[in-house]
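Changelog-linked ticket: magnesium ion example.
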Amino acid sequence: AKDIGKIEPDYVKSFQFESRLLPLTWVVVRIDGCHFHRFSEVHEFEKPNDEQALKLMNSCAVAVLEEFQDIAFAYGVSDEYSFVLKNKSELYKRQSSKIISAIVSFFTSTYVMRWGDFFPHKKLKYSPSFDGRAVCYPTSDILLDYLAWRQVDCHINNQYNTCFWMLVKSGKSKTQAQDYLKGTQTREKNELLSQQFGIEYNSLAVIFRMGSSVFRLKTQEGVTEENGEVLGKQVDAEVVVDYSNIIDRCFWQQHPHILS
Ligand code: ATP
Ligand code: ATP
Ligand code: MG
Ligand code: MG
Ligand code: MG
Ligand code: MG
């Protein structure tokens, strides 16, 4: 038998490759629910949008920002969330597998822990899972283009899904609804909603149309007391959720600390 005591640790470790994320780039870790089409059916999510399910996702994202100080911003829609790590972050020495697995497992366990807070009358029937990937963006401009792409996707999917489910709820089969919508443009979908169903797209809940953004309110660097004394007290910045248009660069101008 082989003498276990003689195995050189360095030799065994030499097979491990650590892939480090490119230094000084913005890292986006995007997680996505595995087979949530099925998960949402089994758990009878409201269609097209179950608000409680979205709020559970948001609550988990807030927990992630509270746990990982290096995450500056997160954007979520449907069963996905994108977490933005600051460009100067040295979390896990930027080893991608450690970063991704730590975020995705923390998010998933929080999702299970908090399920009952959002669905007090629904039993969680099986263990949900999420996958994760990391992508580096070299400049904040490209990062904002990435986030804009996710928000455009949110809009396109929400508009399609709203039409699709209105057609299905009005008696069409899923295949009929799909065929009906094939090749329709944004304007035609809005007209369908307003003429056939009396729905003005822009009056739908903002959380459905915009997706959710999670970030910290600006840190107070020093509070000046009445006697002029400056207290250097470091208050933990509150993590908030909002439903802003993040494609519009105004949002980023109004919250310059997020990317600084
Ligand atoms: P994959 O494992 O490849 O990600 P998936 O079934 O999760 O497959 P997605 O493209 O991620 O596919 O889509 C997620 C699906 O989950 C949506 O199509 C929708 O059916 C469902 N879903 C997620 N969140 C909600 C929600 N809040 N309300 C209603 N349905 C939802
Ligand atoms: P890191 O986040 O770097 O992994 P860690 O605290 O998890 O930090 P590990 O080297 O992974 O450190 O060690 C796990 C520790 O968890 C052990 O040192 C031990 O204290 C504790 N632990 C894990 N499993 C058990 C167990 N079954 N019984 C008692 N203690 C345990
Ligand atoms: Mg996926
Ligand atoms: Mg999914
Ligand atoms: Mg998805
Ligand atoms: Mg450990």
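Closing comment: Example verified and attached. Residues 32-33, 36, 79 surround magnesium ion (ligand 4) (CB under 6 Å). The chain has a mean pLDDT of 94.
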